[in-house]
């Protein structure tokens, strides 16, 4: 998602439409909490990772990831068709930031990368070595801090405005072939650069691929052509990475669904064929409801919120419904899921911040109990309101404020509570301004 000042988003993760699922019960939620989770992500080495690649399942790998954090609006930023680390106002980052992320209790970082302006012409599509080496340097910061890392191709597919154009490719086989050639060449080069890195590093094929309609565009009326095209791109990605050998032969690979929309992913993602079993991870994003989580038009959320300050949909039941559906479609069939982006922007009052913290603890706890890892979207912006997701000062690695620290603690508490017996039922009961005697039946 484009996250820079003044950017317009039409986030339509409204899978409440035509999304009828069984209601949760307290028993079901309690059962989910029995899932094991690594609450203290450990350090790793390339040797350890090589052994891990042969023994660990995708479900185990995701459970070991812990809470995640995005280096947003950094390497994904761009101006005039050229990606730049500082294009959207954030300073260049150093290792101290990643040390702070690890010290705060996070277990993995997602490093979105836009490659626009750094790729040569056909047929080689050679990636600029300076850009690739700077990405590698930052991946090294994550490795040195003991964090797992995810690297992707990010805004090259933004709204089908650039070369990764799903609308054009779905309509024209020649355009699709050209995209596949470039996608395959780029991923082969990225993979070769990191072939010696162990399984702490995950490659994610792309970001939010869509035609500009955020899941409600031509994909809804083209007889599935965009979904088929997208699935073909995912196969190209897997084949290109695997062909480079080394650790890439068994590396875990992130496969995002169309627009990273959970409902569209459930309905339309066809997992690529792979030369090695159980090394694919399904990737989605979650910002329900957008009016609260991103746009900050609503200041409260959940069953204790004032009706006039909350959205009419998207409360706790929606969270568990969506995550249950992802679990049933993928995890229960042996393929792990992670949420590459989620979060809720900074607020300007303590009451609103209380609901923000509750939302994040609830989302992370609900996901954790279903074996799903979640990464917070931090765009570095230390403001309040619309798209103000900053937690860490990128100059120093310190929290921007006590409120930022408390928000991060809500995330890590939702993933790995100090009291290991704390479940989603307890989080629900502890909602802001809740009556301790009120029912927790969601």
Description:
There is one protein chain. This protein has helices at 26-32, 46-55, 58-63, 95-103, 129-144, 166-171, 173-193, 225-242, 262-268, 290-293, 316-329, 350-368, 402-415, 424-429; strands at residues 67-71, 78-79, 82-83, 106-111, 148-152, 201-204, 253-256, 280-286, 337-342, 373-378. With 442 residues, the chain is of the alpha/beta class. The protein has a single domain, classed as Glycosidases (TIM Barrel, Alpha-Beta Barrel), CATH 3.20.20.80. It has an 8-stranded parallel beta barrel, surrounded by 4 helices. Strand 6, helix 8 and strand 7 form a beta-alpha-beta unit. Helix 12 packs parallel to helix 13 (402-415).
Please give a handful of descriptors for the protein shown.
single chain; 442 residues; alpha/beta; TIM Barrel; 8-stranded parallel β-barrel; two-stranded antiparallel sheet; 10 strands; 11% strand; globular; disordered N terminus; disordered C terminus
Give the topology.
Layout: H1 26-32, H2 46-55, H3 58-63, E1 67-71, E2 78-79, E3 82-83, H4 95-103, E4 106-111, H5 129-144, E5 148-152, H6 166-171, H7 173-193, E6 201-204, H8 225-242, E7 253-256, H9 262-268, E8 280-286, H10 290-293, H11 316-329, E9 337-342, H12 350-368, E10 373-378, H13 402-415, H14 424-429
Helix pairs in contact: 4-5, 7-8, 11-12, 12-13
């Amino acid at each position: 998602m484009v996250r820079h000042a003044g950017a317009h988003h039409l986030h339509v993760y409204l899978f409440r439409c035509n999304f009828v699922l069984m209601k949760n019960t307290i028993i079901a939620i309690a059962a989910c909490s029995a899932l094991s989770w690594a609450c203290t992500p450990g350090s790793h080495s390339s040797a350890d990772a090589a052994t891990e690649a042969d023994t660990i399942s995708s479900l185990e790998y995701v459970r070991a990831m812990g809470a995640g954090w995005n280096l947003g609006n950094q390497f994904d930023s761009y101006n005039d068709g050229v990606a730049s680390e500082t294009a959207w106002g954030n300073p260049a980052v150093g290792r101290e930031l990643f040390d702070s992320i690890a010290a705060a209790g996070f277990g993995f970082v997602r490093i979105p990368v836009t490659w626009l302006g750094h790729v040569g012409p056909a047929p080689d599509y050679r990636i600029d070595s300076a850009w690739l080496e700077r990405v590698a340097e930052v991946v090294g910061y994550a490795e040195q801090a003991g964090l797992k890392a995810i690297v992707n191709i990010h805004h090259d597919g933004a709204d089908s405005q650039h070369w990764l154009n799903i609308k054009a490719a779905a309509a024209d086989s020649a355009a699709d072939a050209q995209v596949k050639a470039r996608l395959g060449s780029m991923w082969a080069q990225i993979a070769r650069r990191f072939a010696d890195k162990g399984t702490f590093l995950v490659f994610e094929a792309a970001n939010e691929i869509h035609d500009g309609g955020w899941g409600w565009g031509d994909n809804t009326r083209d007889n599935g052509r965009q979904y088929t095209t997208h699935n073909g791109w995912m196969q190209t990605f897997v084949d290109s990475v695997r062909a480079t050998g080394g650790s890439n032969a068994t590396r875990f690979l992130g496969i995002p669904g169309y627009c990273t929309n959970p409902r569209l992913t459930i309905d339309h993602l066809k997992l690529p064929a792979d030369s090695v079993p159980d090394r694919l991870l399904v990737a989605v994003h979650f910002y329900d409801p957008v009016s609260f989580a991103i746009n900050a038009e609503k200041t409260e959320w959940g069953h204790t919120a004032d009706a006039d300050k909350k959205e009419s949909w998207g409360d706790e039941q929606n969270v568990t419904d969506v995550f249950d559906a992802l679990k049933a479609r993928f995890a229960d069939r042996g393929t792990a899921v992670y949420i590459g982006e989620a979060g809720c922007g900074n607020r300007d009052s303590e009451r609103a911040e209380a609901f923000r913290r509750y939302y994040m603890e609830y989302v992370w706890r609900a996901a954790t109990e279903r074996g799903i890892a979640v990464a917070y979207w931090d765009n570095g912006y230390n403001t309040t309101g619309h798209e103000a997701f900053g937690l860490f000062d990128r100059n120093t690695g310190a929290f921007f404020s006590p409120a930022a620290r408390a928000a991060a603690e809500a995330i890590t508490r939702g993933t790995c509570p100090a009291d290991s017996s704390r479940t989603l039922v307890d989080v629900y009961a502890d909602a802001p301004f809740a009556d301790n005697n009120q029912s927790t039946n969601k």
